[in-house]
Amino acid sequence: MYSFKNDYSEGAHPQILNALIETNMVQEEGYGEDHYSLQAAELLKEKMGRSDVAIHFLTGGTQTNLTAISAFLRPHHAAIAAITGHINVHETGAIEATGHKVLTVNSGKDGKLTPAGIQEVLDAHPDEHMVKPKLVYISDTTENGAVYTKNEVEQLSTFCKENYLYFYMDGARLGSALTSSANDLDLSDLPNLVDVFYVGGTKNGALLGEALVICNDALKEDFRFYMKQKGAMLAKGRLTGIQFLELFRDNLFFDLAAHANAMATKISEGIDAAGYGFLTPPVSNQIFPILPNTLLEELHQQFNFFDWEKVDDEHTAVRLVTSWATKEEAVDAFVESLKKKVTE
Amino acid sequence: MYSFKNDYSEGAHPQILNALIETNMVQEEGYGEDHYSLQAAELLKEKMGRSDVAIHFLTGGTQTNLTAISAFLRPHHAAIAAITGHINVHETGAIEATGHKVLTVNSGKDGKLTPAGIQEVLDAHPDEHMVKPKLVYISDTTENGAVYTKNEVEQLSTFCKENYLYFYMDGARLGSALTSSANDLDLSDLPNLVDVFYVGGTKNGALLGEALVICNDALKEDFRFYMKQKGAMLAKGRLTGIQFLELFRDNLFFDLAAHANAMATKISEGIDAAGYGFLTPPVSNQIFPILPNTLLEELHQQFNFFDWEKVDDEHTAVRLVTSWATKEEAVDAFVESLKKKVTE
Amino acid sequence: MYSFKNDYSEGAHPQILNALIETNMVQEEGYGEDHYSLQAAELLKEKMGRSDVAIHFLTGGTQTNLTAISAFLRPHHAAIAAITGHINVHETGAIEATGHKVLTVNSGKDGKLTPAGIQEVLDAHPDEHMVKPKLVYISDTTENGAVYTKNEVEQLSTFCKENYLYFYMDGARLGSALTSSANDLDLSDLPNLVDVFYVGGTKNGALLGEALVICNDALKEDFRFYMKQKGAMLAKGRLTGIQFLELFRDNLFFDLAAHANAMATKISEGIDAAGYGFLTPPVSNQIFPILPNTLLEELHQQFNFFDWEKVDDEHTAVRLVTSWATKEEAVDAFVESLKKKVTE
Amino acid sequence: MYSFKNDYSEGAHPQILNALIETNMVQEEGYGEDHYSLQAAELLKEKMGRSDVAIHFLTGGTQTNLTAISAFLRPHHAAIAAITGHINVHETGAIEATGHKVLTVNSGKDGKLTPAGIQEVLDAHPDEHMVKPKLVYISDTTENGAVYTKNEVEQLSTFCKENYLYFYMDGARLGSALTSSANDLDLSDLPNLVDVFYVGGTKNGALLGEALVICNDALKEDFRFYMKQKGAMLAKGRLTGIQFLELFRDNLFFDLAAHANAMATKISEGIDAAGYGFLTPPVSNQIFPILPNTLLEELHQQFNFFDWEKVDDEHTAVRLVTSWATKEEAVDAFVESLKKKVTE
Fold first, then answer.
1. By Cβ atoms counted within 10 A, which residue in A101, A105, C330, D89 is the most buried?
2. How is C181-215 classified by DSSP, letter by letter?
3. CA–CA min distance B31, chain A (Å)
4. How far C182 CA sits from the closest chain A CA (Å)?
């Protein structure tokens, strides 16, 4: 059974493991003050063309979101997210556990936020009997596999500035977004557009690790205190430092994401050729084809993947996820199975 | 410059890295439901002779403490710790950030709690105008390098049961404790004596990882919810599972700790032979010799370690920490330097 | 300008003020342990026919909701409320500030919850990646002036029991509910149907004060700790005790609510006679007539009340609130103005 | 049995009750936007000679402390208090429940903080592994009945400014402090010396009510949001507004406090004349005489008061509290009983 369930089914890219081995016995400072972490931060700044951002390495997405968002907000502030946003649904109330309400926008199939959607939330929160919306949370790619265009992000950025809202981008799958055919953003655009974002390592070839990039000066102060308080500062911070150093030393981060996207595209093309459609356009490493239940029964016998939502009595949208580790043979086998079934 | 600053200066024991490499491309479930994590939990239960404990893998000490303690306490409950306890001093108010007061006992040089000390706290909190003490936190080894005897832990255990207090042991350095010459506890004793404890991996040869062991049935329910909410559930949970599997497959966990202790003992003996004393008896991988400032000036030029506290105008207690990775040559060099200096 | 903006525009019923004066110089214990509070609690228990409930007096609705709900839930638990529920919208994120997510049900114009609506929330929260729904919050009357029937509450009660959910009723306007023509619940029914509810004093003739009634044994323990911790325990607890004693000594609580309802009914009848309809059926002391904007312009010159929502380009639903203090002359004047305008 | 247990045993000064009656049927805005609250705030500003402070009325001390302190601090910030400070001991962990550690100073019998004591706390918190001390909390009078001199407050003020610490004064018994013989502070001095303080009404003649005065511009923003979120905003805000208007319309606030102090002084003089001493100098409405246990046995049969602490096997320090309501006959009777007993 080959799995297309998610992009964290395997370990790490071999080059990363190799770097861990090579550096293993070097003695370093703890808690993120090691040379690897410092170098990795410098390297990321170079890649972004911005020496003034602050970069911190954390271990996972939920941890990064809760640590950062709770650090930035005052007690009466709320975050705004798509109703499908990861912080709203899949983090066991992590943001609320730090005291903050997540206000939601019904964002449609693609899971994207728009200025109009945010404006509705602002209009509904005029005074002190309600929370004060203060941070806009988006994910790129979204939880539904969509990718923001530069224009969309620029519009949101302008809107946030005009309304004194912090603009936060969850980049758990930023690699897939930036290497998507639907993308026209560059990593170096982000510091000019958002207040904070993170570059996801866990879902793009690292054992674990997310690089939080704080672009807004007002949000930089004392961030290491928040990390320590939330249990987000590894004693062996080298572990995340070394990995990001490897991911960004050359082009590994983008190469791995491009591979994931290419594999997803290959599956999408097969599905398209077989005459099936998608819940949302397949542009990233998460695709959501709508397939007949009879076909799915067969496919589930060979492959692991999630049923996403019932479309009608005979069709279901499923989620297929590829990654840096996805084998082309498995992709070919999947498409082959599909074709065979269809032509039967 | 060789470092005796802490026990997390290097990466991981090579056997652990090797296991990561060997398992790297196996596809597994995420979030701790992989086979390695499940096996590691079973293995730990066997080593403890208790199939009924619940075991969860987290990434670090502060994270483990805050996730577990906040899961167990109701809003008005407080934890009791030695004034030197890690949760009281060195976790940036992580417990308070989850809403709970940490009540402290002046515990003396060794950092140990006693029933008498806890009783004083209970006596001072008689009614609803004050928090209700509910959990007793100890560390073994303590933050000052001391090791609890079985009798001491039994007394605390009985006291806690009699007073309806949860008994929690922070085992960040449990390996060093259990292999100390001052120890008469066995790993398998702990589930009978405490309600919860954790087995520290980070400071004993793992890249990261702590194994939380919940022994009290009343505290087991829904624990994975708390982990997820606090950002303590790794997508690639295999990372901690594989490491603990390796640490406990044979005797690696204890071998590594024994090495750390042996190295500390060797330094201690050298210091003792040179005629110097200690702040607390040197029984674990953290030792606190009291040395003349003139000697320290020289040693600091060759070795990295922390000055701990001023003893008098001419003497300072320092902290030397050894680990699984400590090289005997470095230990010998340290003792040699000391001797040379003394005989000058 | 006479105000129909809310039911807390005046002070307290004169009988209550009188009781404050008469008891003023009696020395009493503080923090709710005075004789008046103890007697008031006993009296309420008698009125409910239940000696086993626990009763605590707090100062306002938001305080009562946040203190009680946060006391009952564990960190990963969430409350379920109508999207219009007071805890979701109008308490500045008070529940989230204690760490808990509020999950919402789109509940329609009347603001009532149904088992079907709650079931949808349960279905969407199957595992530890999401919060665990644990408490169902309803308001009677609802924020939209609707009143639950006994059958509706029984159905919710059964559903909650079957699903291990706490059932919590916000009774800020319970007086109006229990004396509504649409009501067939008795105060004494409530302890058999809900786990917790409160009897609102602030909006029914008291200066301030809500009587929280904890019916579920499992939720009674240590409640005074939570009150003190949230700043909800008045040093002069007599202030709420005396008021509830007065409200329930005879029938004052119900008489005052009946007056408020009667005044609302009189306005409703006038509006109905004038040919206008309502957003929701007018059954309590909050009514929501839909009136032409031209008429509203005139009425706003004589009366204070809130525009509630735009219905179409020419009509707006407004909220009119009556209370124990509403003067019949004002009601008559309002109806007269309306009539005059209509016949013009 | 006459009670000297506390200063909240009776209701309110008759003039205050009278004002409640006279204004009772006037319709007003809710939530502190009524004319009485607005006028009371203006009046207080006049009395302080500062039009730029922000004033909010809350219901009790714990509520005021937790709402204000949690509003001002960021998640990693801690408050510094005397070990005897109300927020440290007697508020059921209210500050910690909002996420913040309370760091303590061993402050001696009088319960006063000094710059030296605070400096020690600062020195012990140098980096991000520990909380960041940010707010200094003092009470005037202290929990032990002591009164700060102007010079002491000035020194603390300067120290706080130099160290970027907010300076917060709990004025639950500020009336007694400002009218004490040991006091040389004027109400109008406070806005120049502290960042925030509150003027206690509950313990000085009001039914309930504390006036929070925010002097530091940086702390004023959005404060009403915090009040609402913590359940600290009364629907009938007029209740606190009317009372403070009455207390400060003329000199009632100071007259009542002066009476309380005078009664305490009369008792103190009687105790002194009888040859007994005090735990701390008797300068406010809380005095702590040290009396023989045999004498206390007799006194306890006639009067209610708290035993405070055992001094030796035969002597106990007790706490006697007087108030605006204390009757001179009761004071005389107490002194008489004492004298009689002594001369026996």
1. A101
2. TT----GGGHHHH-SEEEEE-GGGT-SS-EEEEE-
3. 9
4. 30
Chains that touch C (3 or more CB pairs under 8 A): A, B, D
Residue in chain A closest to D73 (alpha carbons) equals: A74
Does D94 touch chain C if contact means CB atoms closer than 8 Å? yes
Does B91 sit within 8 Å of D129, measured CB to CB? yes
- Any alpha helices (H) in C49-189, and if so which ranges? 61-72, 86-89, 94-97, 115-123, 150-162, 174-178
Distance CA A272, CA A270 (A): 5
**Burial letters A44-70, b for 16+ CB under 10 A, else e:** bbebbeeeebbbbbbbbbbbbbbbbbb
- Whether the Cβ atoms of residue D48 and residue D199 lie closer than 8 Å to each other: no
Chain D residue nearest residue B102, CA to CA: D101
Q: D14-251 adopts what CATH topology?
A: Aspartate Aminotransferase; domain 2 (3.40.640)
Angle formed by the axes of helices C328-343 and C252-273, nearest 10°: 10
Cα–Cα distance between A104 and C219 in angstroms, integer?
32
Could you tell me if C125 lies within 8 Å of chain B, comparing CB atoms?
A: no
Of D71, D75, D228, the CB nearest to A129: D228
Task: Answer whether B106 touches D (CB < 8 Å).
Answer: no
pLDDT attached to residue D52 = 97
Cα–Cα distance measured from residue A341 to residue D12, given in angstroms and rounded to the nearest whole number: 85
DSSP letters, C239-263, are HHHHHHHHHHHSSHHHHHHHHHHHH
Nearby residues of B125 by Cβ (< 8 Å), 6 or more positions away: B78, B103, B131, B132, B133
Residues 255-284 of B with CB under 8 A from C: none
Tell me which fold the domain B14-250 belongs to: Aspartate Aminotransferase; domain 2 (3.40.640)
Asked if D92 is an interface residue toward chain B (Cβ–Cβ < 8 A), one would say yes
**B129 interface with C at CB cutoff 8 Å:** yes
pLDDT tens digit string along B100-110?
A: 999 999 988 99
Q: Which H/E stretch holds residue B74?
A: none
Residue of C8, C80, C96, C230 to mutate, testing the A interface (most A Cβ within 10 Å of its Cβ) = C96
- Euclidean distance between CA atoms D231 and C151, whole angstroms: 32
Please indicate whether, in this complex, the C-beta atoms of D128 and A98 are within 8 angstroms of each other: no
Answer for the pair A171, A140: CB distance below 8 angstroms, yes or no.
Answer: yes
ipTM of this predicted structure: 0.97
CB contact D172 to C (< 8 Å): no
Q: A2-7+253-343 and A14-250: same fold? A: no
Q: Is B99 left (phi over 0), alpha (psi -120 to 50) or beta?
A: left
The verdict on B99 touching D (C-beta cutoff 8 Å) is yes
Query: By CB neighbour count within 10 A (0-12 exposed, 13-18 middle, 19+ buried), where does D90 fall?
Result: middle
Instruction: Give the integer Cα–Cα distance in Å for B338 and B343.
Output: 9
User: Which residues of chain D neighbour B96 with C-beta distances below 8 Å?
Assistant: 78, 96, 99-101, 131
d(C-alpha C195, C-alpha D298), whole Å: 48
3-state secondary structure of B230: coil
CATH of C14-249, one of 3.40.50.720, 3.20.20.140, 3.40.640.10, 3.30.450.40: 3.40.640.10
Tell whether D309 lies on the interface with B, counting CB pairs under 8 A.
no
Contacts for B149 with CB less than 8 Å, ≥ 6 apart: B182, B183, B184, B185
Is it true that domain C2-7+253-343 has CATH number 3.90.1150.10? yes
Residue A1 pLDDT grade (very low, low, confident, very high; cuts 50, 70, 90): very high
> Could you tell me the residue ranges of all domains in chain A?
2-7+253-343, 14-250
The model's pLDDT over A214-265, given as tens digits with 9 standing for 90+, comes to 999 999 999 999 999 999 999 999 999 999 999 999 999 999 999 999 999 9
Cα angle at A216 between A214 and A219, to 5 degrees? Answer: 75
pLDDT at D342 over 80: no
